[in-house]
């Protein structure tokens, strides 16, 4: 697409507008979109009209702008994560029924934990994970599991980019990751909510590297994590087999 006078392409601007929304701001005014996307207001009005015309954005009765249904439809057509989600859902449902806690499936994407699916449970422990939401690697059991079971070159690249914050949060990072690999799971107490413990296990491929993580958040007062870990590991093995991998998690 042709570049604007500022040098960014029309596609860049479309992406910045779509990316301006987040979990806490699912609907925005055009003026706020313009500010967040760093695009002139008049141009934003025109681009928003184009996106609304194609169903990628929608305008509500108050004139606020939100993601359109067609965007969701296109995103879910043949997405790589769909096979993973389809394979994992039956096992996640079993965990959700057994442990009676929110259960989530996540992947490592662009150096963050991306939540692919979450099954909720009334009365379960507080859980900040939301579908399509992102969470930091260094503060979640999901992130530490995904990082620890990544390929060595991927770990090295991640630490080159984020080593300072990782080591400030995890002073013995290398030893901690080695321990996660040895025991096959990560658990973290109170990093997101002080009254909860997160526990996560990897879903692995034939080479033993992660393709996803299965996790739950339980009350920090839980007497023992072992039943939780056993359920998660059994489910992760099932997901791996369903995906066609022979090696067990």
What does this structure look like?
With 249 residues, this protein is of the alpha+beta class. The protein is 45% helix and 19% strand. It has nine helices and nine strands. Strand 8 (196-204) and strand 9 form a beta hairpin. The radius of gyration is 20 Å and the shape is globular. The N and C termini lie far apart (45 Å). The relative contact order is 0.11. The mean pLDDT is 90.
Spell out the blueprint of helices and strands.
Elements (H helix, E strand, L loop, with lengths): L9 H10 L7 E2 L1 H8 L3 H13 L3 E3 L5 E3 L1 H8 L3 H20 L3 E7 L2 E8 L14 E2 L5 H8 L3 H18 L3 H11 L2 E4 L6 E9 L5 E10 L6 H17 L7
Antiparallel strand pairs: 1-3, 2-3, 4-5, 4-9, 5-6, 7-8, 8-9
Helix pairs in contact: 1-2, 2-3, 5-9, 6-8
Q: What is the CA–CA distance across the termini?
A: 45 Å
Task: Work out the strand percent.
Answer: 15-25%
In CATH, the topology of the largest domain is named Beta-Lactamase
Which stretches are low in confidence, meaning pLDDT under 50 for 5 or more residues running?
none
Q: SS-based structural class? A: alpha+beta
Number of strands: 9
Outline the biggest β-sheet. Answer: 6 strands, antiparallel
